[in-house]
Amino acid sequence: MPEQSKPGEQDMVRHARGEVERSTGGGRKRPAVRDSLMPAAVQGFGVTFAQMFRTVTTEQYPFEPKVTKARYHGRHVLNRHPDGLEKCVGCELCAWACPADAIYVEGGDNTEDERYSPGERYGAVYQINYLRCIFCGLCIEACPTRSLTMSNDFELADDNRRDLIFTKEQLMAPLLPGMEATPHPMRLGDDEKDYYLRVPEKGSTAEPVAEETV
Ligand code: SF4
Ligand code: SF4
C-alpha cells in the first residue's frame, strides 16, 4: 500500500512541478502560466518598455531642493517686531499647548536698560526639542502675539540628540533691513499697545518673513 502524503507536502510537490494555480478574485482559478505565445523574456521587456513612457516621479533630492506646499509645517521661527524687538513675551502658552512636551520656556523681566520685547516680559530661555516635536502646530495656534510661527524648512535630520534641541538663538528670525539687534528701547511707541495696535506703514520692508508661511 503506497504511503499517504500530508496535504502540505502535496502543495510543495505541486509548486516544484510548476502546477501552482492562483486565485482570480472571483473564486475561479486559472493557471499561473500566461496564455501569451510570446517568450517570457519578451513579455518582461515589454513591461520595461511601457515604463519608459510614464511620468517620472523620482525626485533628485538633495541635488534639487524639494519645494513644499506654502502652508507646510516645518521648523519654528520666533518673529520680531519691525524695529527688531522680539514678539515673544515668555508667557509659556505654547509650552502648555504642546502635546509632546517639546517646548521649554523661561520668561524674564524687561528693564529700561535692557529691553528685548515691548511690555514687561520676554522669553529669556526658549527651546524646542525636535526629537519630540510632531509638527502639529498647536503651539503656534496658542501663541497670543504671533511670535511663534512655522517655516517650510524640513531639513532637520542630525546624528546626535543634543543638536536637535534648538535654542532661542537658532529659532529667532533674522534681522531684516530696518531692524536693530536686541536689547534696545522701544522705537515704535511708548508702550506695547503701540506695537500691537499700530497699522504698518505702506511699503514697509521690516515685516517678519516667516509669518506668512503658516
Ligand atoms: S508643533 Fe506640536 S509637537 Fe511641535 S512643538 Fe508645537 S505643539 Fe509641540
Ligand atoms: S512663543 Fe508665544 S506662546 Fe510661546 S512663550 Fe512666546 S509669546 Fe508665549
TrEMBL record:
HAMAP family: NDH1_NuoI. The keyword Repeat applies. GO terms for molecular function: 4 iron, 4 sulfur cluster binding; iron ion binding; NADH dehydrogenase (quinone) (non-electrogenic) activity; quinone binding. One of its GO terms (biological process) is aerobic respiration. It is a peripheral membrane protein. The gene is nuoI. Residues 78-108, 124-153 form the 4Fe-4S ferredoxin-type domain. Belongs to the complex I 23 kDa subunit family. NCBIfam families: NuoI (TIGR01971), PRK05888.1-3 (NF004537). [4Fe-4S] cluster 2 binds at residues 98, 133, 136, 139. It catalyses: a quinone + NADH + 5 H(+)(in) = a quinol + NAD(+) + 4 H(+)(out). This is NADH-quinone oxidoreductase subunit I. Residues 1-32 are annotated as: Disordered. Keywords: 4Fe-4S, Cell membrane, Iron, Iron-sulfur, Membrane, Metal-binding, NAD, Oxidoreductase, Quinone, Repeat, Translocase, Ubiquinone. NDH-1 is composed of 14 different subunits. Subunits NuoA, H, J, K, L, M, N constitute the membrane sector of the complex. It comes from Blastococcus saxobsidens (strain DD2).
